[in-house]
């Protein structure tokens, strides 16, 4: 059995206005001996921004800003910017996040060359109403969204005067191009994870998304398989390249008498064709067990969103009970060995 060490709480909320209700779900990237964390900071009233801190090594706090590094600026993110993920592709950092306007949740992008100054690039996710989406789904008899746990709500068009769009969140880029193409994961509201290929700065046009959804059955990355992820699966950390494939740390959700239980899960995907699953752990990598994971803003949550490697140790940063940030560590070589023992 794989040995996973819970390193404990890394970051808690403070009395500062922008993070006095919680800190959670951080993006993480290693630069030299430092780890940069960009985390979701929640203020009273459930308004989210992105806070920042720098760690010396994987665990020791070095710097923590007393104000957010990214804040809502546009109507589509007026209720908050949530759950960032971060990768570096060539010489540019890609920070994706979910924008929430109180009704719609859509994946967005900001880019940076220095991790200090960010340029918001807008919404990456498709902006289809439920009616428009239904037409695309029904146009191809091979697309069966009931299989993917998606409920088509034909009668709902707008709320409080705002168009209700199909939620598309957890946009997470692979940290390098594959065969010259950008790859990213995303999850339409349902139980399945999808993958797409396009230039994020100019290729994600309405026409791209229309053609994509007409053939969306070809974009399935993977579906729930085991008991701990049976309700649905979703994006976690950006994939980590190993000699054996892309290591994917994702979240799986299981419904229980006490509500949903969110666990960290692991899989290996083919380096040149990420839609080819090599292996998947048949049990959670780690799950809620301590009080600060079992009880909080949302109970029973371990939600992994950032990971770094120091020598042979993988450190996974995760939101615990939607209220604070914790870290778990394990041997990277042992994890890949355990995964390969469960080849598909």
Describe the structure.
- This protein has 344 residues and is mostly beta strands.
- It has a single domain, classed as Tachylectin-2, Chain A (5 Propeller), CATH 2.115.10.
- The protein is built from four helices and 23 strands.
- It has helices spanning 130-139, 206-214, 291-294, 332-340, and strands at 5-11, 22-31, 34-43, 47-56, 60-64, 80-89, 92-100, 105-112, 118-123, 158-159, 162-163, 168-173, 183-188, 193-197, 220-222, 232-234, 240-242, 245-256, 259-269, 277-280, 302-310, 313-320, 324-331.
- Strands 16, 17, 18, 19 and 20 form a five-stranded antiparallel beta sheet that branches. A four-stranded antiparallel beta sheet has the order 1-23-22-21. A four-stranded antiparallel beta sheet has the order 2-3-4-5, with no helix packed on it.
- The longest helix has 10 residues, at 130-139.
- The two termini are 18 Å apart.
Main beta sheet: 5 strands, antiparallel
Number of helices: 4
Runs in which pLDDT lies below 50 for 5 or more consecutive residues are none
The radius of gyration is 19 Å
Helix-and-strand structural type = mainly beta
* Number of separate domains: 1
Mean pLDDT: 93
Strand content: over 45%
State the total count of DSSP E strands: 23
């Amino acid at each position: 059995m794989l040995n996973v060490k819970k390193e404990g709480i890394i970051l808690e909320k403070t009395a500062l206005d922008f993070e006095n209700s919680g800190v959670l779900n951080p993006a993480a990237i290693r630069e030299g001996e430092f780890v940069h964390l960009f985390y979701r900071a929640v203020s009273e009233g459930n308004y989210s921004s992105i806070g920042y801190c720098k760690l010396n090594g994987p665990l020791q706090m070095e710097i923590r800003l007393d104000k957010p590094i990214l804040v809502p600026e546009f109507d589509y993110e007026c209720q908050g910017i949530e759950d960032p993920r971060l990768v570096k592709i060539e010489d540019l950092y890609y920070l994706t996040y979910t924008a929430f306007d109180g009704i719609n949740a859509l994946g967005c992008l900001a880019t940076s060359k220095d991790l200090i100054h960010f340029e918001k690039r807008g919404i990456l996710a498709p902006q289809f109403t439920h009616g428009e989406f239904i037409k695309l789904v029904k146009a191809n008899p091979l697309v069966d969204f009931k299989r993917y746990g998606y409920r088509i709500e034909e009668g709902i068009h707008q709320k409080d005067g705002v168009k209700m769009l199909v939620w598309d969140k957890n946009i997470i880029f692979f940290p390098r191009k594959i065969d010259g193409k950008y790859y990213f994961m995303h999850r339409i509201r349902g139980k399945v994870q999808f993958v797409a290929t396009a230039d994020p700065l100019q290729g994600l046009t309405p026409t791209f998304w229309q053609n994509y959804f007409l053939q969306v059955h070809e974009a399935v990355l993977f579906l729930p398989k085991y008991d701990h992820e049976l309700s649905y699966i979703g994006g976690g950390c950006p994939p980590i390249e190993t000699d054996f494939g892309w290591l994917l740390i994702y979240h799986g959700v299981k419904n229980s008498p006490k509500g949903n239980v969110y666990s960290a899960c692991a899989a290996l995907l083919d380096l040149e064709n990420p839609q080819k699953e090599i292996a998947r752990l048949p049990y959670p990598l780690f799950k809620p067990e301590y009080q600060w994971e079992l009880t909080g803003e949302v109970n029973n949550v371990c939600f992994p969103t950032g990971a770094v490697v120091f020598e042979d140790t993988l450190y996974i940063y995760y939101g615990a009970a939607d209220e604070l940030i914790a870290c778990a560590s394990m041997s990277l070589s042992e994890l890949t060995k355990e995964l390969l023992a469960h080849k598909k």
